[in-house]
Amino acid sequence: MVNVLDEHERTMAFADVALSQIKSLRHPATPRNYEIWYVYATGYNAALNKIINETLARSGKLAEAELEQLYETYLSHLKTTDRLDKVGARVIGEIDDVMNLITDALGMTASYDASLASADQKLASVTDREQLVEIIDMLAKSTREMRDTNRILEQRLSLSKSEISGLQHSLEAIRAESLTDPLTSLGNRKYFDRMIEIAVQTALANDEPLSLLMFDIDHFKSFNDSYGHLTGDQVLRLVGISLKQAITGRDVTARYGGEEFAVLLPNTALRQALTVADQIRRAVMAKELKKKSTGEVLGRVTISVGVSMLKPGDDTDALIERADACLYAAKRNGRNRVISEVDSEYTAQARSQVA
User: Fold this and answer.
1) Residues annotated catalytic, as ranges
2) Cα–Cα distance list, 21 to 39, 54, 57, 262 (Å)
3) How far apart are alpha carbons 238 and 284 in whole angstroms?
4) 355 confidence band (pLDDT: 50, 70, 90)
């Protein structure tokens, strides 16, 4: 009982802090806002607390747009694990129920087999009509019981099939979420690693070209330092939107990590890839960045791009390493540009490393 009381007092203290923050900042007392401030009070989500503290220290408030961004970035995706656990528990429960039913059915089958064996023995020694009627009644009763059991099993299995089919769809949705970066809605690093392996194997097997674009946001740290991480998140979203608008068909786009993005272009040679890369670079630069909470214009975002193409004998690491080297060559040579492995800025660096 003491533990229950301790837990009650502890959680009520968190609730008091959450409600106090909602009152002092005059936020609507919605479930979303309460969750944000409750998690903040617990201190369990260090990244969330860091950004909230930073934003409050800078402006003394959190606007509605900032609260929405905080929730989407730092809390909503955490529910995926909870959902996965719940669906998994339901699948296990469903399987347990079916197994228990099958066990009962097997017991009934064994009993029916025993009845048949007993009837067979009695029939061998039957001497009058009454004995024969008794044996037939016993067999009829056992057959009815077996039929009823089979009908129940069939109905239950049909229900379980529908239930498990629904759970399978839920798991597929959760799996898709687990491969998605919650901030940009692009594929995440896990998704990219999986897709590049498939793309390289397919390209090598079919003797098709495959190009890789690696992007990095120029001066990203300065956005965070000057305007805060929420604005930095907005910059990441802006680039993500540009990539989604530019990529179609079999192309694969992902947030590679931090402020770095990657795009796989199957059946695309280097010249075409360079065109796509520059189109994306221009699309990002064309978008005006505004601070969501105030509407203040913060300028424009630029990206640097490195481009490589799969060569015979390449593996995924080699393809990524060359694209990454081209990316850093672009950053060293002024940023806001596209450099490929055939450009002099990259080849000069490659020669110097060999020497």
Assistant:
1) 259
2) 12, 15, 14, 39
3) 7
4) very low
Alpha-carbon dihedral sign for residues 88, 91, 95, 101: positive
Q: What is the CA radius of gyration of the chain?
A: 32
Contact 37, 21 (CB under 8 A): yes
3-state secondary structure of 179: coil
59 within 8 A of 159, measured Cβ to Cβ: no
Positive or negative, the CA dihedral 255, 257, 260, 266 is negative
Angstrom distance (rounded) from CA 22 to CA 37: 8
Predicted confidence band of residue 175 (pLDDT cuts 50, 70, 90): low
Q: Which residue has the higher pLDDT, 130 or 349?
A: 130
- Provide the residue type at 240 as one letter: G
Q: CA 103, CA 111: separation in Å to the nearest integer?
A: 12
Whether the CA torsion 162, 163, 168, 170 is positive or negative: it is: positive
pTM for the model: 0.61
Please state the rounded mean pLDDT for residues 224-251: 86
Give residue-wise pLDDT tens across range 2-32.
465 577 788 888 888 889 999 999 898 888 8
> Edge-to-edge strand order for the sheet containing 260-266?
252-257, 260-266, 210-217, 303-309, 338-340
Q: Whole-angstrom Cα distance, residue 260 to residue 303?
A: 9
Cβ–Cβ < 8 Å for 282, 219: no
Residue 274 has pLDDT above 60, yes or no: yes
Q: Of 262, 236, 247, 240, give the one whose Cα is nearest residue 327.
A: 262
